[in-house]
Amino acid sequence: MAIIVQKFGGTSVADSEKILSAAKKALATQKAGNQVVMVVSAMGKNTDMLVDLARQLNSRPPAREMDMLLSTGEQVSVALMAMAIHSLGGEAVSLTGAQIGIRTDSSHTRARIQSIPTDRMRQLLDEDKIVIAAGFQGIDENFNITTLGRGGSDLTAVALAAVLKAAACEIYTDVDGVYTTDPRLLSDARKVSQISYDEMLELASLGAGVLHSRSVEFAKRYNVPIHVRHSFSDSPGSLVVAESESPSQAVGGAAVTKNESLISIKDIPDQPGTSLTIFKNIADENITVDMIVQNVGLDGRANIAFTVLDDDLQVARDAVEKSLGELGCGRCEFRQDVSKVSVVGLGMAQQTGVADHMFRTLAAAGINIQMITTSEIKISVLVDRERAEEALKQVHQAFSLETAPDDIQTREIGSPAESDEGEVASDLAGMEGLRVDEVLLDESQGRITISQIPDRPGVAAHVFEKIASENIFVDMIVQSDSSEGQASLSFTVPRDQLESAFKVAQSLVTDMDGAEATYCSEVAKLSIAGIGMRSHTGVAIRSFQALSGSDINVEMVNTSEVRINLVIDGDRGAIGMDALTDAFSDVLSKKPSGRQSSPS
Ligand code: ADP
Ligand code: ASP
Ligand code: MG
What we know:
The protein is an alpha+beta fold and 600 residues long. It folds into 2 domains: 3-174, Carbamate kinase (3-Layer(aba) Sandwich), CATH 3.40.1160; 254-402 and 434-583, VC0802-like. The chain has 17 helices and 27 strands. The strands form 5 sheets. It has a 10-stranded antiparallel β-sheet. An 8-stranded mixed β-sheet has the order 3-6-2-1-9-11-12-10, with helices on both faces. The chain has a 5-stranded mixed β-sheet with strand order 25-26-24-19-27.
């Protein structure tokens, strides 16, 4: 008999009527011949209310007690849900995370799942009972209650689906699927029929709150198909699976993170180990950073800028101040009036001109781009917070995201998840542990840097419009935040196109007062690919540590959920590759596959 996991979010269980409606769904699914596991969130805004209550008593409540408090929200819901099922003539048993035995590490308020036994759930299912599991919680080895991070019930649902080898993991929520962007922000957003794990992972971590990003990480790792659906309708929603909706589309979705803060560190030494000192103290606080931009100055001094969520700003600033104390130099500035707007698409790695199109669109709307970072499947820009929604709208329109592509593919859902890892998942320690698939070296590119570019709308658009018109393939793009009204822009291109790209850059700087173009024909790009690259805050640190240990300076960095790319000096590629392979040997699933001769 197939097992179906059905997760109901807070708004879907906000009152007794809604709880009854969810209970009816589960009973109907059981009646159709399935075994049903429900995962339930706290009712409505109950978790927010509890957080607020805690803050009234203590501005920094002890994390252990926070978990003790927050886990009660889900406990209320599961008991009520079981009562609702009984009232409808069914049989159900509610279980807390501890009663199931969901073991996590001890990082309170952001714990990671380590193992989940299935015996008790299976026994109850075999007795024709509906199992109702409390979302978002577990216990550590000392029986302390832990929670998985806000929105973590999605993760509980996907994890249970993985260990039980469920035929489907249905996420019932207050929208009828995954949209090309948040439908509450943009009425033009289109519901997608299917989206790939990698795209959903990026979108979730870049602001699309419909799924918790770690739940998508988990689904990808254990190949669990997710079906996002509306709680109060039977119509099909969106599938999150390995393949994307359309093979031809460069961009599949857009997202905004409004509450992003920019931290810029100026005047630090441009030498191996500096980034390490800065990021080590931040990672120790378990803070995820994004949009890391390192900008090499001409006088042996460097600037580093990066973004964190507003909520993490204070702790991140304290960590930076500590690092500056250790370095004995530098200063830190920050801004809170910025937002990150991103586009994501598996197809963009194969197409030229995607970045150019995004930059031109923003320039035409007079929106200044303050920072740029790209990876193989995403482009993020930092803009003024008050222009962020408009920027999202413009970009969504520019890539025609409201229109369905012609070549939509949709996978049939209903067959159990196929996964070797799934076989052993229930016994595996560290289910959410870091997984590095491979370390890659690409020695086929060169770098162009334009320093001292003016900080006004349209500059990046102008540069990449000209570059695209020469059919030059641009891989990594990094634009620093501005310092005294000027920024610097670096990008990599295939070596055989470097000369033409440099010519374009030189012709452009003549119109930009004080700007200067330089190039480096030999850079090496090292990539670490896997799962959990950003959410495991220590990955960037380990890389910086490994490279600085081999006396290698990092010139450009970008991070995504599935990859970290680092550009270093061209003649240090092989040494860097060895250093990274060594540093990640404990979690590396594939041995080095050798050098890449052309960009992928
Ligand atoms: P739940 O309580 O069911 O977990 P959430 O509030 O966490 O629900 O997630 C659903 C919300 O996610 C929607 O109401 C929607 O506003 C928001 N959202 C953000 N981005 C997207 C997107 N790309 N597609 C669908 N919904 C999105
Ligand atoms: N109740 C928790 C929260 O609000 C978990 C969840 O809803 O997924 O964050
Ligand atoms: Mg949610």
